[in-house]
Design goal:
Elements (H helix, E strand, L loop, with lengths): L4 H17 L2 H25 L9 H21 L11 H19 L9 H18 L2 H10 L5 H7 L1
Helix pairs in contact: 2-3, 2-5, 2-6, 3-4, 4-5
């Protein structure tokens, strides 16, 4: 299916509107919530069915969605504090996200693998790696530019 020029122009209008209405910090929070939630949910989904993607059900999607939302909430919450500046670093951000994904996955459902926390650990490692890979894409570069809004420019200029 080919996207129509109308849908492309609509997407441009929505992006322009978002840039004019929302501050960069709020845009970052929206992108963070969306893409990190999808990252954790996707990894959780694949691991729940052991890589057999054709065995996916609605119940799997619901559990993966819960894991994705719960894993990203602490990150979004931290963007309202002074610690948000640490999300500019892709490694720190991805490591924190991996830890939150471990906690969310172990809370939402039991492991489908031997060991109580095996699946949660695998999901955390997968989410960490997925997050690092995405950070090197054009989308990751866009999100990184939005995260720069959390840097204290006045304080950084005084130290230089």
């Amino acid at each position: 299916m080919v996207a129509s020029p109308l849908s492309a122009s609509y997407a441009s209008v929505v992006m322009l509107y978002m840039q004019t209405v929302l501050h960069e910090k709020h845009q970052f929070r929206l992108f963070l919530f969306g893409h990190k939630g999808v990252e954790a949910g996707a990894v959780c989904l694949v691991l729940m069915v052991g890589g057999h993607v054709l065995d996916l059900t609605g119940a799997h999607l619901l559990v993966a969605a819960k894991t994705g939302v719960l894993s990203v909430l602490p990150s979004v919450g931290l963007t309202f504090t002074g610690f948000a500046r640490h999300f500019v670093n892709r490694w720190t951000s991805s490591a924190f996200f991996g830890i939150c994904t471990f906690a969310a996955d172990s809370f939402v459902h039991a492991s489908h693998y031997p060991g109580e926390y095996t699946e949660a650990a695998l999901t955390a490692v997968g989410a960490f790696l997925f997050s690092v890979v995405v950070s090197y894409t054009p989308l990751g570069a866009r999100i990184e530019r939005l995260a720069d809004a959390f840097l204290d420019r006045a304080h950084a200029g005084a130290e230089s």
